[in-house]
Amino acid sequence: MSEASATPRNSNKFIGLDGCSGGWVASLYDAHTNDIQLSFFEKLKAGKDLYSAAETVWIDMPIGLSGDGITRTIDYTMRIHLRWRKSSVFFPPSYEALSKSVYEEANRINKLIYGKGLSKQAWNLRKKILELFDFLQTNPILLEKFKESHPELVFQSEWPREYPLSSKNLHLGYVQRIQVIGKYIPDIQEKVEKFCREYPTTILKKHDVLDAVILSVKAACGSTNELTQQPDHDKFGLPFLVVY
Question: How many angstroms separate the CA atoms of 15 and 98, rounded?
Fold first, then answer.
């Protein structure tokens, strides 16, 4: 970011959400105090009051999806922008595929209609994608607040080196991401590690927390990059938009 855009706006609270094995990690960033509040929710709806009080919510989960012949193509653009970390972008299931409960059938119908099969990683997001869809349909007033994002896009945009970030699953990748967030929250490592001690790694991991934190911090900044496509909405009117 430029120096001007790196300064949080004169606003209130911003949320980053990341899915984890046990549910969802939420980071509430207060742009006035430059501090964060970390939370874990088994279900997305458990954080409704938190989301309602925030100015915006950046979430690492697909919102607009392919369906009824409308194709989501924005993932190709994300992969181009991510370069070294393009493998972190999974092409999400279409609505037709999400209606199936068995991977093989979902893979077959996705390939039949859209010419592309599903990776197991994308299929494993099915429950969370449906949970987010149901939540936004039940709480349409929050739809304008929720923005799809991708933590790796944000980290890459904040990484000042010519060489790429290491994988978030490696210790070096963890240290590098701590350095990125540390520009905004100097004691972030202490906060993250204290929070993670409260939960087993079967529920959440450190990189889940860092992903949520960087989304909340970037959401608070005045300059937002956007990736779009045409058509710009899916069959339910949900946007094909990724912010970072």
Answer: 27
Q: What does the domain layout of the chain look like in residue ranges?
A: 1-89+129-244, 91-124
- Determine the residue type at 121: Q
What does the alpha-carbon distance between residue 116 and residue 113 come to, in Å, rounded to a whole number? 8
User: Looking at the DSSP assignment, which residues form a beta bridge with residue 243?
Assistant: 149, 226
Which two tokens mark 106? 């979902």
Q: What is the pLDDT of residues 115-152, one digit of tens each?
A: 999 999 999 999 999 999 999 999 999 999 999 999 99
Backbone angles phi, psi at 39, to 5 degrees: -140, 155
Query: Model pTM?
Result: 0.92
> Where do we find the tokens 């990341």?
18
Pairing status of strand 56-60 against strand 13-20: parallel
Residue 225 vs residues 56, 61, 157, 158, 213: alpha-carbon distances, Å: 15, 17, 10, 12, 18
E-strand ranges in the chain read 13-20, 23-30, 35-41, 56-60, 146-148, 226-233, 239-243
- Kindly report the backbone phi and psi dihedral angles of residue 126, in degrees, each rounded to the nearest multiple of 5, phi listed first: -50, -50
